[in-house]
Write a sequence for this structure.
């Protein structure tokens, strides 16, 4: 075995997939998705690009892996014992906070809805929906409605992250949008003009939670129907037996 081959093997042994993912997250958080290249990653890890390719096939696989790790942390941090509807709120806010802390993940989640990170979210949401007592024939619609809301958030943050990478400040951008809305025809856009003043200063987290609460409120009638059906199907014995 040549000295070069031995050095390459030592790098492969010392460099782990977890270390690559951690370094990728650092680059993504600091500079955005555009800055994540295998050359930049190799420089941060003080290794060669070949050693990274030994663990990760390409950038898409790397982005899927870092998204999966971020979402996996949410599962670990979930509090046990919460009432199902509160568990949904807690989980949804955890996803919100993860996307808020790592805006680049929004693009990754919305870009590939079949990746493992999205399946983790769907499984968690589905479990809470079942625990909530939603009828079996409605669980798919309810879980995917919540998922669509979460991935819609991801898409919005992806756009915001792109603006930030382009040097556009969020507050400034919203103020400019609100100013354009305020100039719209009042007959054709009365509501848009009405909310224009609220747009620049709105709280994203508060608005998100309001949306989750609306979804949860819409689930209640389904639970009531299921409870009524269970009661009606229960056998009634004479004398209370």
């Amino acid at each position: 075995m040549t000295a070069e081959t031995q050095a390459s093997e030592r790098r492969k042994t010392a460099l782990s997939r977890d270390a690559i993912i951690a370094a990728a997250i650092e680059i993504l958080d600091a500079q955005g998705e555009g800055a994540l290249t295998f050359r930049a990653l190799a420089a941060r890890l003080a290794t060669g690009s070949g050693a990274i390719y030994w663990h990760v096939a390409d950038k898409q696989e790397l982005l899927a892996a870092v998204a999966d790790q971020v979402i996996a942390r949410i599962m670990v941090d979930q509090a046990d014992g919460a009432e199902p509807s509160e568990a949904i709120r807690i989980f949804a806010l955890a996803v919100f906070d993860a996307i808020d802390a790592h805006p680049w993940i929004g693009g990754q989640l919305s870009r590939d809805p079949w990746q493992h990170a999205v399946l983790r979210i769907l499984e968690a949401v589905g479990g809470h929906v079942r625990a909530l007592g939603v009828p079996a024939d409605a669980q798919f619609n309810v879980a995917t409605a919540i998922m669509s809301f979460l991935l819609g958030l991801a898409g919005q943050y992806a756009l915001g992250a792109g603006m930030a990478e382009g040097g556009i400040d969020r507050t400034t951008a919203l103020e400019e949008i609100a100013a354009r809305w305020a100039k719209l025809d009042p007959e054709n856009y009365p509501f848009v003009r009405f909310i224009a003043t609220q747009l620049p200063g709105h709280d994203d987290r508060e608005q998100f939670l309001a949306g989750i609460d609306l979804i949860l409120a819409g689930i209640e009638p389904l639970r009531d129907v299921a409870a009524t059906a269970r009661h009606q199907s229960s056998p009634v014995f004479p004398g209370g037996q």
